[in-house]
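Can you give me the bound-state structure? Components:
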Amino acid sequence: MSAVTFAPTGHANGIRNTLTIARRNLLHIKATPEQLVEMSIQPLMFLVLFVYVFGGAIAHSSREYLQFALPGILVQSVAFLPFTTAIALNVDFQRGVIDRFRSLPIARSAVISGRILADGARVVWSILIITGFATLLGFRFGGGAAGALGALALVTAFGLTMCWPMAFIGITARTTESVNTWGFMIILPLTFASTAFVRVETMPGWLQGFVKANPVTSVIDAARGLMLGGPVARPVIQSVLWMAAITAVFAPLAIARYRRRV
Amino acid sequence: MEHSGIEAEGLVKTFGKVRALDGIDMVAREGTVFGLLGPNGAGKTTGIRVLSTLLQPDAGTARVGGYDVVRQPREVRRLIGLTGQYAAVDELLSGQENLYMIGRLLGLSTRDARGRASELLEAFDLTEAAGKYVKTYSGGMRRRLDLAASLVGRPRFLYLDEPTTGLDPRSRLELWRMIRSLVAQGTTVLLTTQYLEEADRLADEIVVIDHGRVIAAGTPQQLKTRVAGQVLQARPVDPADLEATEKILSAFATGEDATHNDGQLVTVSIADRSALGQAVRRLDEEGIGIEDLSLRRPSLDEVFLAITGHLAEEEPDPRDENRERSTT
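Here's the bound-state model for the whole set.
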């Protein structure tokens, strides 16, 4: 047998382990092309359906509605992507793949950080596909290049943030069915009861309270301001604070669950 | 005595009210195959999970190659390879990608990881399927890949948790052959199994555990002699003589339940071989033609029954530590 040398394990290896696991997760897309549909075609379908079905009714013109709705659709798509984080972690636990990883002398955090890094790549991919397609349909950035880049960075950061609560659900839930149930119960109201598709003024008072307090609303308002040109300071600061808070709560929870799950 | 093997002292692990491990002591010497034998839910998998640092014991200590599993888990992980009851390979990667990934995780360069992967694929007869997704593999191929995956880092200690459960006889024999050749190269193997034959064939030493406790320990030979006496088996030429045969032989049996008639063969536990001659004479006097008559030491199955009071294949009870992932 050939001589094999093992590199010493240390902190640099934590990063290498993370990259190896991220690569593994992205390779899964090759094995399940449905994932590619989920992260490319599905958001485009959403975009087309919402803009052309509701556009006329809500904004009296599809073209105008596209301008209004694109930031919302982007944020919604990105909020749903971390479902993959949750389901993939859940399946890895059930299949015993996590046991194998945990029996190896590798950084324990690498399994989660590799997962989230891979999902970050998927988030960026989806954002580029959606905005690219929207531009073809006639969407125009009114906030300049800086605004556009700022919006895309913010939405990406939001997608990564949402990976943490979803990772927590994926690790905690015993079955993939319950991952689905919990995930939908949280993500669906958060994305719909927001300013994604209609203005908050059109909703009943009790709902307005929820919508205004909803972190997704902050992110959408910030993205909208940056993409179309408009007030951004307050929603951007709110979004950043929300994302920091969600990460601060769910990242340690997810990691603690990961360590303790039998 | 040198402490370089696997040692456990007073291991306790409880899940709620269930004591999955209830004070396990064991010593597996380096370079041997150590069998952990017991029925479903006896605590075998929990034991393996503690010894592989996946679970922390509630009490007791365990050392692998001199390292403490609780205080020095990283050092322990460098020494071990784990093959679970559930083939823990990634179905959505090819066999080659699975092994390459583990090589990379263990710190091999891309070139070395690729080299090690093809070496193992070759050794486990998977070269042809190397590029195919594991989800297309047969059960036997998955187990072989799983075993290969646990060997990427050339572990000194290899843990095999029910490695042949659910495999067809041919794949089982093949896996046994591979395990033996690993041991010949110096690997220490900790094997859990509910197949007594497997423990008998592979293990140098066995502990029998049930309800989280060690109820017997020793070499397979020692365990067999623990059950007193021998086993006499007779097959009458004419199946119509079965009952008469049973009646005659039961006179020599060590106890009331020591006679067994399975419809072809009468099996009797006897105290010593002097009963054999008398039994033959009695059968002859009655004019019963015997096609096959044998006297042997009890099988591990019979030993197991004698020690635990129940058969190894008994239904899994609620203590089964794998209840959450039960696939059967």
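A couple of observations. Residues 312-328 of chain B have pLDDT under 50 and may be disordered. The domain at 228-297 of chain B is CATH 3.30.70.2190 (Alpha-Beta Plaits).
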